[in-house]
Amino acid sequence: MKNLLGGKGANLAEMCKLGMPVPAGFTITTDTCVEFYKNNLQFPAELKKEVDEALLKAEAVMNMKFGDKEAPLLISCRSGARSSMPGMMETVLNIGLCADTIPGLIKKTGNPRFVYDAYRRLIMMYSDVVMEKSEGVEPEEGKGIRVQLDKMLHEVKVKKGYKSDTDLSEEDLKNLCDAFKGRVVEVLGKPFPDNAYEQLWGGISAVFKSWNGKRAISYRRIENIPDEWGTAVTVQAMVFGNMGDNSATGVAFSRNPATGENKFYGEWLVNAQGEDVVAGIRTPNPLNESTKNDQNKHLVSLETGMPVVYKELDNIQKGLEKHFRDMQDIEFTIQDGKLWMLQCRTGKRTGLAALNMAMDMLHENLIDEKTAVMRVAPVQLDELLHPILDPKSEQKASLVARGLPAGPGGAVGKIALTSEKAMEYNKLHIKNILVREETNPEDVEGMRAANGILTARGGMTSHAALVARGWGKCCIVGCEGIKINIAKGEVVIDGKTYKEGDVISLNGSKGWVYENAIKMIDATENPRFQEFMKIVDNHRTMGVRTNADTPEDAQNAINFGAQGIGLFRIEHMFYGKNSEAPLAKLRNMILANNTEERIIALNELEPYIREAAKGTLKVMDGKPLTFRLMDPPLHEFVPQTEEKQRELAKEKGMAFEEIKHRIDALHEVNPMMGLRGVRLGIVYPEITETQFRALFEATAELLKEGFHPQLEIMVPLTISVKELKHQKVICDKVHQEVEKKFGVKVDYLYGTMIEIPRATLVADEIAEVAEFFSFGTNDLTQMTFGFSRDDVNAIVNTYVSEKIIPADPFNTLDQHGVGQLVNLGIQLGRTSRPKLKVGVCGEHGGDPASIEFFYKAGMNYVSCSPFRVPVARLAAAQAAIKNAKCDCGCC
Ligand code: ADP
Ligand code: MG
Ligand code: MG
Question: How far is residue 102's CA from residue 95's CA, in Å, rounded to a whole number?
Fold first, then answer.
């Protein structure tokens, strides 16, 4: 249903079926929107008749008629996509008010102030959404019709000394409507339509067009929502929260969306209409006791203000949760004491809330284990493991302002006062906090680029809060202590002036703002998280290993639940800390004149390899550890600048020219496709011999010390089984020698990486010798696309924006192309070795979408960096649940 009716339309229909009070209406399908775009923005021929018929039914239920002089029905045209895009498309309210219908509605309601309030809202929304945005008019900054009308409204308020919109009198509003209409003609060059039907069709078309509005497009990019879906339009009878003090409008969540706490949570405003709560025009009232905070605790709650309506709403909210078995985000309006439901949808939540809700609902028997596992998105888990402000440093820091805790965790960064600035910082990898007056959906890209968001206005249900929460971004809203001056590029917090670029820190879980940078720490060790991960592992069938090259990383990965190491890079010891000694030996080997010199250097290098291997094997006791033989091109390990080369020459007591000559000889035009990987071992067999000896001796020593090392030796860059056989002869020889020397039996596996397209094509032959395959999907992607990994970024970005490829293939596996090679390689490999163990050790091993693909391809494990391990465990469990055969026996 959602695919056709959009989330909003489908759920309104569902609430109707459950007997809940929903204003009558109908939904035009997303298919119609798709057709509308195909037909060059023309409505399909049969639509008009169908809308007329549906409208008749709604009129009958509401006992009013659209465009009628006596009892005029007003309607809203509401957008709704398959997957919720909060605030990213348009909705027009109060459609149907015109010279013909205004007197009738005044007479019928006896409330002229209300009618002119609705009319001024209609003019404001309609001229903005239908006459300007949907026509593609792009006014200069601050010159849009909406801003101009807002300014006019504001001026009246100032002139009359009003504090709030609700102070405006009938007379004020009536005059404003006339002034508005004048301004609309002036700015947009055509009059505001004075005909109910013209307004209706203008509204429908504008909602369709809002699917391709700027905000909607940006949001779809970020959320990976396909451009082809289109939006539905729900046409619905209006109910009014702006009819006086017995009317109201509100937004609520069946549980707290920031923490997950099982308490009804929300905000409401008396005498207001829909957007008012979300737009942060007035500070909204708390729904109940548990929603009270610093900003709103003095305001009356719905629970005490309208106890009967509150009770009904509370019952409905409970009913909805039971029905949908998930946290609901609901919108409601109270017209003259009567409650109307206007929307419900699965509520967006932070990672912390997702975890807490999944575990609570499991314990409440609302959902089963599998559903609980599916409820936390892998990226949310990532967010849970993200840093918070270090509580100790926070205590000492100076608190400068407080707002509402809209998105959890901590953030430290430079103040950015515009979205553009936030994006600019982000491009330069500079941590930044987007500081804005109010929450504005036009800012999505800036919000995305920011590390944290801070706004002066808006409540917990404001757009910024909603969107930030969806992304698990640290966010504070409604922070009234800050005053922004964009023109001067500064913000005043608690009387002190900060410039754009000054550093502040946010605690999004408390809503507290600090000056300067505060230390951040990881938010691990959460018992709820441990409990959840245990359930995750119950449903996971594919193994998760890690890529680690040091005992510390290995230990870290074990703490995160890694079951082995899928990639240990031997060359790691030549980089960074403590690398001087082994690197010097390696350079001797590289710069050796002949085999003899090389063997001498290798013998000196061997103990370093042995110790590195031993240290990590010990930490991994009982768990498999895959060592990859030396892989990179040798020139990476020798200095490239003359200055450094001279230093090296001095160190080695050699002539500079001699050093330079030897280094130049290593030069290759395409080093990625040159002398590296197994090719090194074929050209210089003594290099692999040394590595085999170091690995076997480390293993033998550990066996004698009572450990349980599980050695797996992996040959990189293989293209032919003959390479593996060539190296295996050396391996067998060394293995025998070491077993004899130590008097122990050393078990190990001998396998290979599959990372060159040719290897996947002859995988059956390779598997005759290889006992396991590990797909190196970075190189496989590089060689299959012919994209040089290290310098292809600009091309890939253009290709993605031109939609030539759907995503960066180095981040998420190209299932369509590279995926075929992976499937083929596994299939062929298992024809000659049915039990062949298969894993992946590229970057893709930590990407949830790729992990699902690897699961379906029949891999035994994925391997990823230590911090991705929990994400990979969850993604693997979700893949198993999603792709499980049902128990019905039919499939
Ligand atoms: P969004 O997708 O941005 O949430 P909606 O279509 O939900 O947009 O409309 C925004 C708000 O407008 C709603 O929350 C509701 O308060 C108000 N609204 C929409 N339709 C009606 C209606 N038929 N009667 C009264 N208020 C409405
Ligand atoms: Mg809504
Ligand atoms: Mg590789």
Answer: 12
> Is the CB of 390 within 6 Å of ligand 1?
no
Q: What is the mean pLDDT of each run of 10 residues along the chain (891 residues)?
A: 92 96 97 95 95 96 94 96 88 96 94 95 96 91 91 94 91 96 96 96 96 90 88 96 93 92 94 80 88 88 97 98 96 96 93 93 97 94 79 86 87 95 94 87 85 88 77 86 92 92 93 93 74 96 95 92 96 82 93 93 96 97 97 89 91 90 90 93 96 98 98 98 98 98 97 98 98 96 89 83 89 95 98 97 90 97 91 97 72 48
Active-site option among 635, 841, 844, 864: 841
Would you call 344 a catalytic residue per the annotation?
Answer: no
pLDDT at 461: 73
Respond yes or no: is residue 735 known to be catalytic.
no
Candidate from 8, 333, 463 with most ligand 1 atoms within 8 A of CB, to mutate: 333
Q: Choose the catalytic residue: 463, 635, 735, 844.
A: 463
The reported pLDDT for the residue numbered 796 is 86
Distance 53 CA to ligand 2 centre (A): 26
Looking at 495-594, list the stretches that DSSP marks H as alpha helix, in order from N- to C-terminal side. Answer: 527-538, 551-559, 580-590
286's CB contacts (< 8 A; 6+ apart) are 266, 267, 292, 293, 296, 297, 299, 301
Give the position, in ligand 1's atom list, of the atom nearest the Cα of 25: 23
**Predicted local distance difference test score (pLDDT) of residue 223:** 84
Ligand 1 atom closest to 78 (CA): 6
Q: What is the pLDDT of residue 856?
A: 97
Q: Which atom of ligand 1 is nearest to the CA of 274?
A: 16
- Non-local CB neighbours of 1 within 8 Å, separated by 6+ positions: 10, 13
53, burial (CB in 10 Å: exposed 0-12, middle 13-18, buried 19+):
exposed
Q: How far apart are the first and last CA of the chain?
A: 25
Whether ligand 1 lies within 6 angstroms of the CB of 275 is answered as yes
The span from the CA of 411 to the CA of 520, in Å, is 8
Per-residue pLDDT reduced to its tens digit, 480-536: 889 999 899 999 998 899 999 999 999 998 899 999 999 987 766 667 888 999 999
Closest ligand to Cα 93: 1
Q: Taking Cα atoms as reference points, which of 335, 395, 15, 79 lies closest to residue 219? A: 79
> Contact, 131 vs 187, CB < 8 A?
no
Whether 333 is in the pocket of ligand 1, judged by its Cβ within 6 Å, is yes
The two tokens of residue 347 are: 């509520």
Q: Quick one: pLDDT at residue 428?
A: 93
Task: Select from 114, 209, 239 the least CA-distant residue to 169.
Answer: 114
Residue 95, ligand 1, Cβ within 6 A = no
Q: Which atom from ligand 1 is nearest to the alpha carbon of 88?
A: 3
pLDDT at 48: 95
**DSSP SS3 for 207:** helix
Using the Cα atoms of residue 517, residue 518, residue 519 and residue 525 in order, give the sign of their dihedral.
negative
B/e letters for 2-29, b = 16+ CB within 10 Å, e = fewer, are: beebbbbbbbbbbbeeeebebbbbbbbb
Going 559 to 560 to 563 to 569, the CA torsion angle's sign is negative
Whether residue 566 contacts residue 841, with contact meaning beta carbons closer than 8 Å, is answered with yes
Q: What is the pLDDT of residue 221?
A: 83
Ligand 1, atom 3, lies closest to the CA of 87
Q: Which of 331, 345, 440, 444 to mutate to test the pocket of ligand 1 (most atoms within 8 A of CB)?
A: 331
Q: Is the CB of 342 under 6 A from ligand 1?
A: yes
**Edge-to-edge order in the sheet of strand 75-80:** 25-28, 232-237, 75-80, 91-95
